[in-house]
UniProtKB/TrEMBL annotation:
It holds the Pfam family ABC_tran. One of its GO terms (biological process) is L-isoleucine import across plasma membrane. PANTHER family: AMINO ACID ABC TRANSPORTER ATP-BINDING PROTEIN, CONSERVED COMPONENT OF ABC TRANSPORTER FOR NATURAL AMINO ACIDS-RELATED. It comes from the Bacteria. The keyword Ribonucleoprotein does not apply. This is Branched-chain amino acid transport system ATP-binding protein.
Length: 260
């Protein structure tokens, strides 16, 4: 049984079937990418899986448990963590503190204990600091730990956001355009980081426009067009699929989203 299982998922916006009858699974250690032309329904699908939208149809399961329509914090408690297309970093906090905030759900204790700084709350903070430091080393930001987040380059901020999502120790990580706005070097760093996280056994679901990156790192690709799944499979198979080529060619002019 896949760790994340999506079956017959769908939602409408007014009369528009934004996503319809989409299903797939993600196993631990796999990198599954969702691709498709602009407006295909990728972000909407992501929002339904991560609890931002309640699906009108279908089912989402995590490790066999039905989690359809659960709120993001309930999903986080069950091991689903996500990053956002528009960075959600606290710019005025230090790099280390940003990762520590990602740990709060995991290390949740009593507010009263924290207010009075009890030994238990001090222990939790120390533990969060240790975990956060380890994660910063993992994403190559250990030397920047005490800097204000606003001082980081864009690519480094993207890696910081991944470190913060990892602070929850997720079993599945949803990455929304992790390489958007990054240059080639930054994209490659993120590329390696994602592969490394997958290798540690975390399941990864990715929405990404950088087709070269998608083809390089995906174990499996799901292709959407106008809300429907039109193809899925290994990168080599999907990139040769006539339906996929047609969907992209149909919007290729000026969109810059050709299959790489
Ligand atoms: N909140 C909303 N209300 C109404 N329509 C929406 C809403 N969100 C998305 N849509 C519509 O649903 C369809 C799917 O949009 P979505 O943003 O999921 O596509 P996408 O594949 O992520 O596109 P892009 O590649 O441009 O990010 C589009 O036709 C879009 O206009």
């Amino acid at each position: 049984m896949p760790l994340l299982s999506v079956e017959g998922l769908g939602i409408d916006f007014g009369g528009l079937r934004a996503v319809n009858d989409v299903g797939f699974g993600v196993e631990p250690g796999e990198i599954v990418s969702v691709i498709g032309p602009n407006g295909a329904g990728k972000t909407t699908l992501f929002n339904m899986i991560s609890g931002a939208y309640r699906p009108a149809r279908g089912k989402v399961s995590l490790d066999g448990e039905a989690v359809t329509g659960m709120a993001p914090n309930q999903l986080a408690e069950r091991g689903l963590s996500r990053t956002f297309q528009n960075l959600q970093i606290f710019q005025k906090m230090s790099v280390l503190e940003n990762v520590m905030t990602g740990r709060h759900l995991k290390a949740r204790g009593s507010l009263v204990a924290d207010l009075f700084s009890t030994p238990a709350s001090r222990r939790r903070t120390a533990e969060a600091r240790t975990v956060a430091s380890g994660l910063l080393a993992r994403v190559g930001l250990d030397r920047a730990a005490d800097q204000q987040a606003s001082s980081l380059s864009y690519g480094a901020l993207k890696r910081l956001e991944i470190a913060r999502a990892l602070a929850l120790e997720p079993r599945i990580l949803l990455l929304d355009e992790p390489a958007a706005g990054c240059n080639a070097v930054e994209t490659e760093e993120i590329d390696h980081l994602i592969a490394d996280v997958a290798k540690s056994g975390v399941a990864i679901l990715l929405v990404e426009h950088d087709m070269k990156m998608v083809m390089r790192i995906s174990s499996h690709i799901v292709v959407l067009d106008r809300g429907e799944k039109i193809a899925e499979g290994k990168p080599e198979k999907v990139s040769r699929d006539p339906k996929v080529i047609e969907a992209y060619l149909g919007v290729q002019e000026g969109s810059g989203h050709a299959l790489g």
